[in-house]
Structures are given as C-alpha cells and as structure tokens.
Design a protein that fits this description.
heterotrimer, A: 374 residues, mainly beta, Pectate Lyase C-like, 34 strands, C: 385 residues, 21-stranded parallel beta sheet, 12-stranded parallel beta sheet, 3 helices, 8% helix, 50% strand
Chain lengths: 374, 363, 385
C-alpha cells in the first residue's frame, strides 16, 4: 500500500516536474498579457502572462503581444521585431521607476510597433528610448512625467520614427527628441508642459509633421543643425504658450549645414511667456558658414512676446544665409516686431500678408519684396 | 427540501433544435471568440473559433462579429458580408482575406493581418470593399491587391496602415479607390500603384517605400479625369514621390492639394524627384495640378514634365518649391508647366525653373 | 446574533461575540485598525475603481474601490485612478496631482445633486488630468470647478445640465486649463455660462462643443490667454463672450463654428484699462442673433463711449453670414478690426460696420455681398505687406 502510494506520488511528482519545467522558450507569433495573468504561464490566450517582459521572451521575432485587459505591465527592453498592442478601451500602463526607461528598443534591423500604452514616470528616465532599429512606430500612446524625455530616438543610417495620436507631456526634458540621419513622421501628436523642448531634432533628421499641438513647453520646437542638415515640414499645427521661442531654428558649427523649415497653415501664438529677449514665435539664427531657410505660408504668428518671426545671420562666412519667405500670413499682436531681421538676414514677402497691431512695429530690418520667380 | 426537476420535453426539443448544426441554417449575425469552437453554430453564446467556419454559417449580407482578442485565421469570402472587430478587440489574421465573387459587397473592420501569406487582402472579384481600422503588414507581395474583375469596383480604405509588405497597394484600371487617414509606409517596392482608375486620397501618408511613392499609370481604356491627393504627405520614398505615366489615347488628370512632397528619390532615379509627369513609351495626354503644396528636398527635380508628352502639363498654384537637388520645376522635350505666378521658389540646386514655363492668369 | 427578550437581556446581557468567539467590538476594532494602517501607508501609483468595487478595498486591480473619493485617498501624488467598467463613481474633491482615466468604451459617471459640484480641484501646484468622465447635473451647481492648481486637463468628457457652470476656472498667472474632445450641454443659469474662464493664466479648447446654455456658451474674462480651435458653439444665448475691463486678454479662434445662437455669435467688450485682442481665422459665424437683439449680429465688438478700453481684432478667411443684424459691428473708439479674405454675405444688417469712432479695415480681398442693410458702413482700407 505504502509502496504503491509512494510510486503514485513519485509519478505525480515527475508529471508535475515535467509540467512546471515545460520549456519557457516555446515562442509563439502572438502572445497575451492580462491583469490576471501569470508570468510562469505560456503567455497564450488561455494562459496569459502578467508582464511585457515575460511575454516578450515567449514571442517569436516580428510577432505580437496583445493586452487583454486594463492593468500595469511593467517596463521592458526589446531586442527583436515585435508589436505590443493594447486595443482602445484597454488601459495598458507602464509605471517607470528611477533608473529605468519605460520601453527600450535596441533591435538592429528590426521593426517595433507600440500601440495604446500609457507610460507614467515615477522617477524613471525616458518613456520610450529608441536606441537602434529600422523603424519604431508609436500609436495612441500617452507618456508623461519622465525625468528625461517622453520619447528619445537615436536615428542612424535611415532609421524611422513614426508617431501618431500620441501625447507626451510633463516630462522634465523633451516631449520627443531625436538626432541622427533618419526620418520622422508625426501626425496628431500633442506635446505639452515639458521642461525642455516640446519637440527637438538635431543633426540629420528629416521631419514631416502635421496636426501637432505643441504647447506650454519651455521651447516649442527646436531644429538644430550643427553637424548635418535638418529638414522640417510642419503643417496644420499649433505651437503656443511655450515659455520661450515657439520654433527655435539654429545652425552653427564648422560645416555648411542647413536647417530647412517650412511652416504652412499653422498657428504660432503667445510664445515666450517668460518674456526673455530676444525672442520670437519663430526664432531663426544662422552662424558662420551655415544656413537657415524658412518659408511661412498661411500661418498665424500672433500674440508672441517678442517678434512674430525673428531671423538673424550672425558672424557670416561667404555662402551662409538666413532667409525667410512669408506669404498670405497673419502677424498680429506681437509685443515687439511683426517681422524683423538682424545682421545680414533677409525676409521676403509676397505683399499679401496682414501684418498689423505689433507693438514694436510691423516690419523691421531687411524686409524685401519677393523677387520671384513665382 | 429538494424539488423534483423534470424538464419539459418540448423545451428539450426546442433547445436541441437551436443547437443543431444544420447544414443549410445560416444566421444574419455570427460570432467568433477566443473560447469559441468551430463545431459550434457560431452564435453569441456558442461562438466559433475562426473566420472560415463562421462565414459558412453567415447569411448573405450578414455580419461576423469578433467578441474578444485573438487570432482568427485567414478566409476566402464569396458572399457579401461584414467582418467586424469593435474598438477594444484585437482580431488577428495571419494569412489574410481573399474576396472572390462577382457583385459582392464586403466590409472588413478592425483586422490585423500580419505577415503570413502572399497578399493581405486580395480583392479578386467583387463590387465594393470597405477596409476600416485595419493593419496589414509583412505580406510577401501586396498589402492590398484591388484587382477586382468586376467593372466599376470600389475600394474604400479608412484609418488603416499598410506597412512593410512587398508592395503597399495596387488598384487596376476601373477600380475606384477612396482613402481617408491611411498610412502606406516602408513597403519594399512601391507604396501605391493605380493603373488608371479614379482615386481620391485624403489625409494619407505615403512614406519610406522602397520604390515610387504614388505611381499612376495610364494604360487604361477610359479617360480618368478625377484623381486627387489632398492633405497628405508623400515623404522619403526611395524613388519618385508621385509619378504619372501617361498613355496616348486617354486623359489622366490629377490634383494634388495641401500636401507635402518631401525628401523623395534618395536613390536619384532619373528623370525624377518630387513629382514626375512622364510619357512612356508613348506621347501622353493629361497632367497634374499642384495647389498649396510644398515640394522640397527631393533628390533630382522638384517637378518634372518630361519626354514627348503633349499636351501633358503641370500647373503650380500657391506652392513652395525649395531645396530640391536639381531644378525646382522643369520641362524637357515637349510638355508645358504653367504657373499661376503665386508660388515661392528658393534654393533649388539646378536653378528654380527651366524649360517651357508659361504664366497662367486667374479667372 | 441570538434574539433575547428585553427582560432577559437586561438580566443576562452578554457581550456580543463573533462566531469564532472573538469579542465583536475587538474584531471590529481590529478591522478598523488594519484599514487605517492601510490608508496611511499603502497608497499606490495606480488605483482602480469598478462597479463591483468596495471602498474598504485597497483599490487595486484585483480589489478595486467603488468611488473616486475612496480611491483618491489611496493614490500617490501624481498617480492614476483607472476606471475598470461602466458605473457612477460619485463627486470628488481633488487636492493633489492625479490622473483619473476612463478608457473609451467605459462609461464613468458622476451625478451631481443640488448644492454640490461634480469635481472640485483645489490643489496648489497640482497637475490634474480627467479623461473620459461623464458629469450629469441633477440639480448640482458646477460640473468641474477649478479653484486652485497649476494645470487642469479635461479630455473626452461630457458635462450636461449643470445649474451654474459646466466648467468654472479662476486661473492664477501661470496656471493653465486645457479642454479637448469634450461636449458641454444645457448648462448655466441666466447668470452662468457653459464654460467660464477668468484670471491671468492660459486656456486652450480643442474639439469642444457647447450647446444649449441659457446664458453664454463660453465666457473669457479679464486676463486669460485663450486659444480655441475646432470649437462648435451653437444654440446658446450669446455664443462666446470675450471681455476685458482690466489687464490684457488675447484670444484666438480657429477653424470653429459659432452658429444659431439666440444673441450675438461672438460679443467682445472692452473698457477701463482693458486690452482685448482677438484673431479669428478659418471660422464660420452664421445664423446668430435669432432673438434679433439690437445692436447685434454675428460678431459685435464694443468699446465704451468714453473711449476707454482697447480692442484689436483680425478676421482671416472667416465667414460671417446669415446673421440677424451685422456680419461684423464695431462700436466706439479704441476698437480696430482688420478683415482679410473673408466672406460676409446675407446678413440682415450691414456686412461690415464701423460706428461711433471704431475703425474697420479691409484689404480688398473679401467677398462682402447681399447684406440687406448694406455691405459696408464706415469701413476703411489697408494694404498687405
């Protein structure tokens, strides 16, 4: 009796051992997490995991992790292609504690997609940190209260950052910041109340953005080119109530880099709340042999504490320029000038803008009629 | 106190009838769920586990509703039907959907079709297809193949992403395509290829495709005078941003408005750049109107109308053409570019304008 | 508990005991003690409420609470309260930074009864975010009352039938309120407004619809820097009231629709030491002043007969048509308005009118036709630059 019982126990123990020791590395193309999940599970639909970290280790390359219900799922480092998706109606939270980032992507050659995540800083550094990869797509996310930035992207060799329907707010540094030779597409982003730049690009990215709201940051947008060209096409966006410049475009350094900035159908209003000087809704400054080119079309530059648009060429070398082109725009209610140039900068207008009610004067400096061709 | 329970025979029979899996018994609404079973009648309380058996149980013009998040497999559709996953539900389908029957109307909502097969959605035959809130990625060939053999087919795509496929989307001559809020990104070949049907793109992003961003080819049997790209971004495609290839007998006309066409043609395909109107291999007929559009930073020309195209044309109205590697707007060998004399040109590598440029007055 | 007859109870009163024999009040005391210790120590960065929650719970995802008031006590400063399913969760006063979020698809309601407000924010330097809440007046005064705080964000909310204000905010300099994707209906007594904003801070409204206020849809008074975009203001008495008696108020209204209001679509009043600036672009102001007040119209901008107060207004690519009264009426010195690329047609009064010392300028780029009282009255011209 005792022997058979012991044998049964042994068999049971073996079976149990086998079950428990079921290989955790059995990767699936689609895994699941749930607030009722368990990280010892297979992360399947019937036995979901509790954290992104556990689910990722069970997800095959370029697979998907699906969030089944509302809860917190922890920070994660991603080194493969994967999609993490929380459908609308499900709150998928990541609280980020000191010394950590919310989602780190270090996945050379891979594509990572993050949808529907809420990343909330509780001492953590960055919400999403794109170290390496072919593309990072961020959709319907909400990132706040990081001690550094909401989204950081180191774009090299043509990497792509693609952000839509996302909020990045109340981070100590930038809402979104990126550098390197890559491409950025932003649509319907809301970047607010960040301690540094709302959106900062440096040295290399090409940016096409529309329907952005960038407000109450220290500076709205920063576009800098100190070591490589930067292009920024901005459309149907609003940049307002930032503490300093609405858009700060600046080039310097040893090369002939160019910042190209095209602002269309947008509103740049009530920036420079701190009343620092000089300042502008758009503040563009080229130094040495570098250049800045700005077009402002059908855009409202209003109520900025400073100039509507300020364009400066400083210490220029031959070939350097700071030039703006203004068409069919409104410059109204700025506390200093509407349009102003400093140094050998030039602003061309096509004679069809309304430039009125600017406290320091509507036009100042080298403002010329656009000579064509048109 | 225990009550004797003896179910009434009629109730039992009725229940049995309800649960009988009748071969011909289809329902106007069927359900799939992660806990479903393909032997079920696919009802709300007894859902199926995958799309194909659910479709077999769905009446013509009925609906398949996805109840919760899971993968539901590929399906071939030969009847009118709506497959819908509500917001909040993730409905995966690795191998995708084939639509193949004349005259049918199909609606697909909220599907994630991810990297199994050849085409994500293959519209082989059918009258109308509506794709809403879907994601199609990783397919070996087309994300969306709209080559319905039905005359006058229509494809409407809303709030959908087509990414990382062999090519983004193809539409044959005669298929009308309507886009709203669509992203066609990082497909290995072209982003969009329209072979001459009318198309209306709005709030569309075509970016980072390995070939041409939007390719319009005029090998068609009818004049197509209504093609529009509005409030969109054609950005960083490795070949031409928007390429129109005209044919001899028929007219094509495309209006691009309130759009950014930037940083295309990094591979410096020639002649090309941001926008190309090309007649090849025959003299062409038609052209493009660009209004309130920015064409900047493209490799090659900003806008080029090329070859022996007559009377092909481009019209620029209230645009900004800047920073292109070669000439801003340029014609060669025949076509004319008209300007409304209200554009801004600056910093184009080969000069701002060259070739047959004519100022066009307002009316 | 055993039933004991009154006589025998007096004689043989025994202490209440739980089943386990533990004295009842000791057990209760222990429970209270445990709960109190929980209150003091166990606050979390994220708490949850649900329809089957219990306010005695720790408000975790597995043991959610039943009301916002209970869960906020258990939430860290700068933490979040997440609504798990559809139900009502009660009034709440907020005195710290917190986010309350109800995801799309979930109805999170607050019914507000007589004498109460729905959500009161009184959190010095607090940052408060409210998402996806439905506040329904059942006699209550104010839907969301922003008494004090650094920043308040209201997103995807729906506020109806409040007696006094749907949203009332008094903003200190540097404070801000941001409202988007929100609908406001039927709020504001004859002295209230749908939305009432005053003080020296910053305001932003985006994709907000305000209808059915018996008084004013939106009032912006004495000081805010305000940006309104994709705002629909319809069937109120006055659509939007901008007023500056002292301080500087600047308002931009972009891609908005103000229509079918009983009184003026937009009324601007300046006086005293006030400076009022407004930039209206790509908007539609139509069929207003249906109650035919005079003077009245689509847009009415008034200084004072003493010439105090300054108003500087620009209208760009905007349509002010089909109003009862003027498309645009400017009155008294100190008021200057520039009109560029607008459409002003079929108003029952003037298209554009400058009266009693005000100035209205056009650039000659607008379509101003078929206004029954006349297209232009007292209007000057200006040149583009």
């Amino acid at each position: 009796m005792i022997d058979s019982a012991r044998r049964n126990l042994t068999v049971a123990a073996l079976v149990l051992a086998l079950l428990v020791a079921a290989p955790a590395a059995a990767a699936a193309q689609r895994t699941f997490v749930s607030a009722t999940g368990n990280d010892a599970s297979a992360c399947s639909l019937g036995a979901p995991c509790r954290s992104f970290l556990a689910a990722l280790s069970h997800t095959s390359s370029d697979g998907e992790i699906v969030v089944l219900d509302s809860g917190g799922y922890g920070s994660v480092t991603i080194t493969q292609g994967v999609t993490i998706t929380a459908p609308e109606g499900i709150y998928a939270g990541i609280s980020v504690f000191a010394g950590d980032n919310g989602v780190t992507i270090n996945a050379p050659g891979a594509v990572v997609v993050l949808q529907g995540l809420t990343i909330n800083g509780q001492g953590g550094s960055n919400g999403i940190y794109f170290v390496q990869g072919t593309e990072l797509r961020v959709a319907r996310c909400n990132i706040s209260a990081m001690t550094d930035s909401g989204v950081v992207a180191q774009l090299g060799g043509g990497s792509i950052l693609h952000v839509t329907d996302t909020v990045s707010s109340r981070n100590a540094n930038a809402g979104i910041r990126a550098s390197g030779a890559g491409r950025i597409s932003l649509a319907n982003v809301h970047i607010a109340s960040n301690g540094g730049f709302g959106f900062l690009v440096q040295d290399g990215p090409d940016v096409a953005m529309r329907d952005a709201v960038i407000e109450q940051n220290n500076w709205g947008i920063g576009a800098f080119a100190n070591t490589a060209d930067t292009l920024l096409d901005l459309r149907n966006s609003r940049i307002f109530s930032n503490n300093k410049h609405g858009i700060w475009a600046q080039t310097t350094g040893a090369g002939t880099n160019v910042v190209s900035l095209n602002v269309t159908d947008s509103e740049i209003a009530r920036n420079n709340q701190s009343a620092s000087t000089p300042s502008g809704g758009i503040f563009a400054q080229a130094n040495l042999a570098t250049s800045i080119r700005v077009t402002i079309v059908r855009t409202q530059l209003i109520y900025n504490r400073g100039a509507g648009a300020y364009v400066e060429l400083k210490f220029p070398s031959p070939g350097a320029e700071a030039t703006a082109y203004v068409r069919q725009s409104l410059l109204h209610g700025n506390t200093v000038y509407g349009l102003t140039t400093v140094g050998l900068a030039t602003i061309y207008t096509t004679g069809d803008s309304t430039i009125e009610d600017n406290a320091g004067g509507d036009l100042n400096g080298n403002i010329l009629a656009y000579p064509g061709p048109s | 106190m225990r009550l004797a329970r003896r179910p009434a025979p009629i109730v039992v029979a009725a229940a049995a009838a309800l649960f009988a899996v009748g071969a011909g018994a289809t329902s106007p609404r069927t359900f799939v769920a992660s806990y479903g079973n393909d032997g079920n009648p696919c009802s709300r309380v007894a859902p199926c586990r995958s799309f194909a058996p659910a479709l077999a149980q769905t009446a013509d013009r009925g609906e398949i509703v996805v109840l919760d998040s899971a993968g539901y497999g590929g399906v071939t559709i030969a009847q009118s039907v709506t497959v819908t996953a509500p917001a909040g539900v993730y409905a995966g389908s690795s191998t995708g959907v084939i639509i193949d029957a004349t005259g049918i109307d199909v609606v697909l909502r909220g599907l994630v079709i991810n990297g199994g097969g050849f085409s994500g959605i293959d519209f082989v035959r059918g009258a109308t297809l509506l794709v809403e809130r879907c994601e199609i990625s990783g397919m070996k060939s087309l994300g969306l193949a709209a080559h319905s053999a039905d005359a006058g087919a229509e494809v409407i795509v809303r709030d959908t992403t087509i990414e990382g496929n062999g090519e983004g989307m193809y539409a044959n001559a005669g298929t009308t395509v309507v886009f709203s809020g669509v992203q066609v990104v990082r497909n290995a070949g072209y982003g969009l290829l329209f072979q001459g049907g009318p198309f209306y793109l709005r709030d569309t992003l075509v970016a980072e495709n390995g070939g041409v961003g939007v390719s319009v080819e005029g090998f068609t049997t009818a004049n197509v005078l209504s093609m529009t790209i509005d409030r969109s971004r054609i950005f960083a495609n490795h070949s031409v941003g928007v390429a129109m290839r005209l044919s001899t007998s028929h007219s094509l006309s495309l209006v691009i408005s309130d759009t950014d066409i930037a940083r295309n043609n990094s591979t410096l395909v020639s002649p090309a750049g941001g926008v190309l109107i090309d007649s090849y291999p025959f003299p062409g007929n038609g052209g493009v109107v660009l209004t309130r559009t920015t064409i900047d930073g493209n490799g090659g020309f900003g806008v080029s109308a090329d070859r022996d195209g007559y009377p092909s044309f481009a019209i620029l109205d209230d645009c900004v053409v800047s920073g292109n590697q070669d000439t801003g707007m340029r014609t060669a060998s025949g076509p004319t570019i008209y300007t409304r004399n209200n554009n801004i040109f600056h910093h184009n590598g080969g000069g701002d304008q060259s070739g047959n440029i004519v100022v066009l007055g307002a009316l | 508990m055993q039933t004991v007859s009154p006589a025998s109870a007096r004689a043989t009163r025994r202490p209440l005991r739980t089943r386990a024999g533990v004295p009842f009040w000791t057990a209760i005391g222990a429970l209270i003690a445990i709960h109190s210790i929980g209150d003091a120590q166990a606050t979390a960065q994220r708490t949850f409420v649900a329809s089957n929650g219990n306010d005695a719970n720790p408000c975790s995802v597995a043991a959610p609470c039943r009301s916002f008031a209970a869960s906020i006590a258990q939430t860290n400063d700068k933490g979040e309260i997440v609504v798990l399913d559809s139900a009502g969760y009660g009034n709440v006063t907020i005195t710290k930074s917190v986010t309350i979020v109800s995801p799309p698809g979930i109805y999170a309601g607050i019914s507000v009864f007589t004498g109460n407000d729905g959500i009161t924010v009184n959190a010095p330097s607090g940052v408060i975010v409210l998402r996806g809440l439905k506040i329904n007046g059942q006699g209550g005064n104010v839907g969301i009352n922003f008494v004090q705080g650094a920043e308040l964000r209201i997103e995807r909310c729906d506020i109806a039938a409040m007696r006094q204000f749907a949203i009332n905010a008094s903003l200190a300099a540097g404070a801000s309120i941001y409202i988007r994707d929100t609908t406001i209906s039927g709020s504001g007594t004859p002295v209230g407004s749908g939305i009432f904003l005053t003080g020296g801070g910053r305001v932003s409204l985006e994709r907000v619809a305000i209808t059915g206020s018996p008084s004013v849809g939106i009032t912006i008074l004495d000081g805010p820097d305000a940006a309104l975009r994709h705002v629909a203001v319809e069937r109120n008495d006055i659509g939007i009231l901008l007023q500056s008696g002292f301080g500087s108020t600047s308002v931009s209204i972009d891609e908005s629709r103000i229509f079918a209001n009983r009184s003026d679509g937009i009324r601007m009043l300046t006086g005293g030491s006030g400076v009022l600036r407004a930039a209206i672009s790509d908007s539609e102001i139509v069929t207003n002043n249906q109650g035919a007040l005079a003077p009245g119209g689509g847009i009415v901008v008034q200084g004072t007969s003493a010439g105090t107060g300054v108003a500087q207004v620009t209208l760009m690519r905007t349509r002010s048509s089909y109003n009862v009264g003027a498309g645009l009426l400017a009155q008294y010195a100190g008021v200057a308005i520039h009109v560029d690329r607008c459409v002003v047609v079929e108003n029952t009064g003037y298209g554009l009118a400058a009266a009693t010392g005000a100035t209205v300028y056009t650039r000659g780029t607008s379509t101003i036709e078929n206004n029954i009282g006349g297209n232009l009255n007292g209007v000057s011209s200006y040149a583009g630059k």
